[in-house]
Amino acid sequence: MRTTLDGPRSRLRAPLIADSIIAVVLTAGSLVVIGATSPRIPVRLPDAAAVRAPDALNLVLAALCTLPVALRRRWPFVMLAATAIPAWALVALGYDSGLGIAGVLILLYSVAAHRGLALSLAALVTALATSAVSASVRPGPVSWADHVVVFVVTLLCWVCGRAIRLRRAYLAELVQRAHRLERAREADTRAARAEERSRIARELHDVVAHHVSVMTVQAAAARRMLDSDPEVTRDALTAIEEMGRTAMAEMRDIVGVLRTDDPAELRPQPGMQDIPALVEQMREAGLRAQLRIGGERRGLPPGIDLAAYRLVQEALTNSLRHAGPAARAWVTVRHEPAELTVHIEDDGRGDADGALTVKGKGHGLVGIRERVALYGGILHIGPRTGGGFEVRARFPLKDRP
Fold first, then answer.
1. Does an H or E element contain 10, and which?
2. pTM of the shown model
3. Is-contact 372 334, C-beta < 8 A?
4. How far is CA 306 from CA 271, 275, 303, 310, in A?
5. What is the pLDDT of residue 356?
6. Where are the beta strands (DSSP E) in 183-303?
7. Where are the transmembrane segments (predicted)?
């Protein structure tokens, strides 16, 4: 056997038990009031309706005016309409209604607190009519002030119910809004994580591809000159060692972003001021590269500064790997007030070995496209007029003064 109630069922039964207790207490009080205040024989008071002595029918009708309170949360309007019938019967038969008006007010509050505006207005009209009729048969004269009091109390119960409903709806909206904001924050967090992973992947690819390519070329040169020219071999091995250390340092800085929240612990990222050193490094690796810088040099936004440097690095790396041993490369950087133009070209065989495509579907060229698009730039990658390959990018600087 089950000894405990399910959670939802227990939550539904708890209000029903409480409302049933209220209904029983209210009914008992109503019957006591009827027995204590009603005359034993029919009388007619001055300026008042005739009041009959209480009997079994009077008690049953009075109980029917208060017992529906037990179902006020489930069917509030139906119960309110149900109380109107015995209330009007009490008036028609000349009986005292006891505390029947209290049951009407409780049901009116329940309709206003748990149902819509149209139904609550209908309940208000029903309650006003029932309360006014019930008040008119109380012993003693009934003045206009009594009707005003009944009207004000009835309207106050309705207003309180509507206020509770509006407050409940407002709190529910706040909860829903908090849930929506939480979901939006989680979505933004996931998007930021995905963007950060993509950024780190681009950085790692650029660093590894560039330095490994240079190290591969230097190792090939050292292998060819190992027997004939040991001095050249020694220089190539020294360059490989320095290149490996540089690659490890840059990768350590990139991965360090994931391990620390203090950017001061990390070295600054490379930028356009490091382009001359990069070109010189490619010359040492065997690529005959030249650098031309035009326009007035100005400070660049950090993101564009890094993106332009990585673009030059990736393009020169591709030239070193695919252009051929006798190829030449030119790097042209032009600073203008509204944009930064970077142009890298070579006169080698391009993608004759099938390692590079004009559409740029390799990881390096995809990374270049993502970097340029991130800052609203325009990128062109393709064969160069007269042979070779070129990469041209324009970064807008509209936010600069």
1. helix 7-37
2. 0.46
3. no
4. 5, 11, 5, 6
5. 44
6. 288-295
7. 12-35, 87-109, 116-137, 143-161
- The answer to whether position 292 is within a domain reads yes
Residues in the chain: 401
**Percentages of the chain per state (helix, strand, coil), in multiples of 5:** 65, 10, 25
Residue with tokens 């730039």: 377
pLDDT at 388: 87
Query: Six-digit token pair at 361?
Result: 């579907």
- Give me the helices (H) in 225-267, please: 230-256
CA distances from 324 to 246, 250, 285, 365, 383 (A): 25, 27, 12, 19, 15
Determine the 3-state secondary structure of 335 from DSSP. Answer: strand
CA 266 to CA 255: how far, in whole Å? 10
Domain boundary among 113, 142, 171: 142
- The confidence band for 3, taking pLDDT boundaries of 50, 70 and 90, is very low
Mapped onto helix, strand or coil, the DSSP state of residue 143 is: coil
Q: How many CB atoms lie within 10 A of CB 64?
A: 19
CA distances from 400 to 4, 311, 336, 342, 377 (A): 70, 21, 11, 18, 15
Distance CA 38, CA 61 (A): 15
User: Phi then psi for 359, rounded to 5 degrees?
Assistant: -70, -15
- Examine residue 228 and state whether it is found in any structural domain, yes or no: no
Residue 154 pLDDT exceeds 70: yes
Q: Which domain holds residue 287?
A: 271-401
Residue 157 counted as domain residue: no
> Tens of pLDDT along 350-398?
544 444 444 444 556 677 788 788 888 899 998 888 888 899 999 998 7
- Residue pair 329/287 in contact (Cβ under 8 Å)? The answer is yes
- As a whole number of angstroms, the longest Cα–Cα distance in the chain is 139
CATH code (residue 367):
3.30.565.10
Residue 180 lies in a domain: no
Strands 328-335 and 288-295: parallel
Last residue of a domain, which of 142, 170, 199?
142
**Four-CA torsion 146, 149, 154, 160, nearest 10 degrees:** -170
For residue 263, pLDDT beyond 70: no
Helix (H) or strand (E) holding 390: strand 389-396
Q: What is the mean pLDDT of residues 198-211?
A: 70
d(CA 69, CA 82) in angstroms, rounded, equals 10
Q: Are 335 and 295 in contact (CB under 8 A)?
A: yes
